[in-house]
Amino acid sequence: MRRVLLAIVVCACTGSKPPSPDGAKCADNMHSPVYDPCNTEHDCMSSMCMAFPAVSLQVCTQACSATMPCPIDATGAAGTCASGLCQPAAANPCTP
Protein backbone atom coordinates (compact mmCIF):
# COMPACT_ATOMS: atom_id res chain seq x y z
CA MET A 1 0.00 0.00 0.00
CA ARG A 2 2.85 2.42 0.80
CA ARG A 3 4.45 1.86 -2.62
CA VAL A 4 1.21 2.71 -4.41
CA LEU A 5 0.75 5.86 -2.34
CA LEU A 6 4.38 6.88 -2.90
CA ALA A 7 4.01 6.32 -6.66
CA ILE A 8 0.90 8.51 -6.73
CA VAL A 9 2.62 11.30 -4.81
CA VAL A 10 5.73 11.17 -7.00
CA CYS A 11 3.66 11.26 -10.20
CA ALA A 12 1.52 14.11 -8.91
CA CYS A 13 4.51 16.31 -8.05
CA THR A 14 6.60 16.15 -11.20
CA GLY A 15 7.19 19.90 -11.25
CA SER A 16 5.46 20.26 -14.60
CA LYS A 17 3.41 23.33 -15.31
CA PRO A 18 -0.32 22.75 -14.85
CA PRO A 19 -2.54 23.42 -17.87
CA SER A 20 -4.27 26.78 -18.20
CA PRO A 21 -7.94 26.14 -17.52
CA ASP A 22 -9.42 29.18 -19.24
CA GLY A 23 -6.68 30.65 -21.44
CA ALA A 24 -6.71 33.92 -19.46
CA LYS A 25 -2.95 34.20 -19.26
CA CYS A 26 -0.82 35.72 -22.00
CA ALA A 27 -0.20 32.95 -24.54
CA ASP A 28 2.99 30.91 -24.15
CA ASN A 29 4.39 33.23 -21.50
CA MET A 30 5.48 31.02 -18.61
CA HIS A 31 7.15 33.85 -16.71
CA SER A 32 4.89 36.87 -16.96
CA PRO A 33 5.86 40.15 -15.33
CA VAL A 34 3.76 41.87 -12.69
CA TYR A 35 0.19 42.77 -13.78
CA ASP A 36 0.06 40.28 -16.69
CA PRO A 37 -3.02 38.01 -16.65
CA CYS A 38 -2.34 34.57 -15.14
CA ASN A 39 -4.02 31.33 -14.12
CA THR A 40 -1.52 29.95 -11.61
CA GLU A 41 1.63 31.01 -9.78
CA HIS A 42 3.58 29.03 -12.39
CA ASP A 43 2.68 31.72 -14.95
CA CYS A 44 4.43 34.52 -13.04
CA MET A 45 8.06 35.56 -12.59
CA SER A 46 7.17 36.46 -8.99
CA SER A 47 5.36 33.12 -8.46
CA MET A 48 2.37 35.16 -7.24
CA CYS A 49 -0.86 34.93 -9.24
CA MET A 50 -3.70 36.59 -7.34
CA ALA A 51 -7.37 37.25 -7.98
CA PHE A 52 -8.63 40.75 -7.20
CA PRO A 53 -12.42 40.35 -7.33
CA ALA A 54 -13.11 44.03 -6.59
CA VAL A 55 -11.62 44.95 -9.98
CA SER A 56 -12.40 41.63 -11.74
CA LEU A 57 -8.74 40.77 -12.36
CA GLN A 58 -6.45 37.80 -11.87
CA VAL A 59 -2.88 38.90 -12.50
CA CYS A 60 0.73 38.33 -11.55
CA THR A 61 1.57 40.52 -8.57
CA GLN A 62 4.39 41.22 -6.14
CA ALA A 63 4.85 42.17 -2.51
CA CYS A 64 4.71 45.84 -1.55
CA SER A 65 5.11 48.06 1.50
CA ALA A 66 5.66 51.69 2.42
CA THR A 67 9.32 51.34 1.42
CA MET A 68 8.67 49.10 -1.60
CA PRO A 69 5.94 50.76 -3.70
CA CYS A 70 4.00 49.12 -6.52
CA PRO A 71 5.06 49.57 -10.15
CA ILE A 72 3.03 51.45 -12.76
CA ASP A 73 0.03 49.56 -14.17
CA ALA A 74 -1.59 49.64 -17.64
CA THR A 75 -3.44 52.87 -16.76
CA GLY A 76 -0.16 54.70 -16.14
CA ALA A 77 -0.71 54.95 -12.39
CA ALA A 78 1.08 53.06 -9.64
CA GLY A 79 -0.75 49.97 -8.43
CA THR A 80 -2.39 50.03 -5.01
CA CYS A 81 -0.65 48.28 -2.13
CA ALA A 82 -3.52 46.19 -0.76
CA SER A 83 -2.71 43.85 2.15
CA GLY A 84 0.95 43.73 1.16
CA LEU A 85 0.31 42.90 -2.52
CA CYS A 86 0.28 45.19 -5.54
CA GLN A 87 -3.19 45.52 -7.08
CA PRO A 88 -3.48 47.19 -10.50
CA ALA A 89 -6.50 49.10 -11.80
CA ALA A 90 -6.07 47.23 -15.11
CA ALA A 91 -4.10 44.23 -16.35
CA ASN A 92 -1.28 44.58 -18.85
CA PRO A 93 -2.37 43.93 -22.44
CA CYS A 94 -1.01 40.68 -23.83
CA THR A 95 1.44 41.26 -26.65
CA PRO A 96 2.87 38.61 -28.96
Index terms:
1 helix, disordered N terminus, two-stranded antiparallel sheet, alpha+beta, 11% helix, globular
**Element order: H for helix, E for strand:** HEEEE
Q: What share of residues are in beta strands? A: 5-15%
Instruction: List low-pLDDT spans.
Output: 1-23
Instruction: Say how many strands there are.
Output: 4
**Amount of helix:** 10-25%
| Termini gap | 48 Å
Rg over CA atoms, rounded to whole Å, is 16 Å
Sheet of most strands: 2 strands, antiparallel
In spatial order, strands of the major sheet run 1-2
Alpha-beta content class: alpha+beta
**What would the average pLDDT be, to the nearest integer?**
77
Shape: globular
Summed up, the helix count is 1
What is this entry, summarized?
With 96 residues, this protein is α+β, with helices and mostly antiparallel strands.
Describe the structure.
The protein has 96 residues and is an alpha+beta fold. It has a domain at 22-87. It contains one helix and four strands. The chain has one helix at 2-12; strands at residues 49-52, 57-60, 80-82, 85-87. The strands form two sheets. It has a two-stranded antiparallel ribbon. A two-stranded antiparallel ribbon has the order 3-4. Strand 3 (80-82) and strand 4 form a beta hairpin. The chain is globular and about 30 Å long. It starts with a helix and ends in a 9-residue tail after the last strand.
Secondary structure elements and their pairing?
Elements: H1 2-12, E1 49-52, E2 57-60, E3 80-82, E4 85-87
Antiparallel strand pairs: 1-2, 3-4
